[in-house]
Design brief:
The chain is an alpha/beta fold. The chain has one domain (30-216): Rossmann fold (3-Layer(aba) Sandwich). The protein is built from 8 helices and 7 strands. Helix 2 (42-52) packs across helix 8 (202-216). Bound molecules: guanosine-5'-triphosphate (GTP) and magnesium ion.
């Protein structure tokens, strides 16, 4: 009997991710995959970031959650077209889930597609979606040891967005330690410190994402 190994499943996912990427490139839509633990502040970040990105009509969001459409509702409340994917028992999004979302979100004409992956710091890392950029979201209350304790995930980061910086003092959060752990795993990754509650650090992140899109499609 033939065994379908995890390696083969990932290879099949990678192929579909490449197909997604080709389609996004053709349509000049820059896809950002946001990965982080449940409650890291991903949706709150998007609620503040999207209005900083410019024209709402040029933005699309896919929300991955096991259940509910609450996150998509939150995004639509800031005026951006969003689609909720419910994975039911699934702990991550996978590349095959994206093409139906592309259709439903009317992708041509968009500049950015943000994907908020299912809240999980481990499983989404291996499943590429065809994204141009991967941002790992780490909130201060999770602790400053997480980068070195979950290396496979952080090794794939193009950006690390540290959220809830208003809680740094009460959590003895060591930003320098986080940055040096990340440098070993993903030297290319840029670090952003963000407090969505106060709107701090959001503009810098928005500007950088726009620059990244411009250079990707130059
Ligand atoms: N203190 C503080 N709390 C925040 C900040 N950003 C988000 N939160 C809170 O963190 C909690 C989780 O925020 P969400 O944005 O829903 O987190 P999430 O990562 O989208 O969660 P899932 O989608 O369930 O994985 C909420 O109670 C937010 O109000 C912040 O900058 N500071
Ligand atoms: Mg969320």
């Amino acid at each position: 009997m033939e065994i379908l190994s995890a390696k083969k499943i990932l290879a099949a996912n990678d192929k579909l991710a490449r197909d997604n990427r080709r389609r996004l490139d053709e349509q000049r839509v820059f896809m950002v995959n946001l990965i982080g633990s449940p409650g890291a502040g991903k949706t709150t970040l998007l609620e503040r970031l999207l209005p900083e990105m410019g024209c709402a009509g040029s933005l699309r969001v896919v929300q991955g959650d096991m259940a509910t459409r609450e996150d998509a509702d939150r995004i639509e409340a800031v005026g951006v077209k969003a689609l909720q994917i419910n994975t039911e028992n699934g702990c991550h999004l996978a590349a095959h889930m994206l093409p139906p979302a592309f259709e439903m979100l009317d992708l041509p004409g968009a500049d950015f597609l943000f994907v908020e992956n299912v809240g999980n710091l481990i499983c989404p890392a291996e499943f590429h979606l065809g994204e141009h950029l991967r941002a790992i979201v780490l909130s201060v209350p999770e602790g400053d040891d997480k980068v070195r304790k979950y290396p496979p995930t952080f090794a794939t980061a193009d950006a690390l967005v540290v959220t809830k910086t208003d809680l740094a003092a009460s959590n003895d959060f060591d930003f320098e330690r986080v940055a040096s752990d990340l440098k070993r795993l993903s030297p290319r990754a840029k670090v952003f410190k963000v407090c969505a509650k106060r709107g701090e650090g959001i503009r810098e992140l928005a500007e950088w994402l726009k620059e990244r899109r411009e250079s990707a499609f130059a």
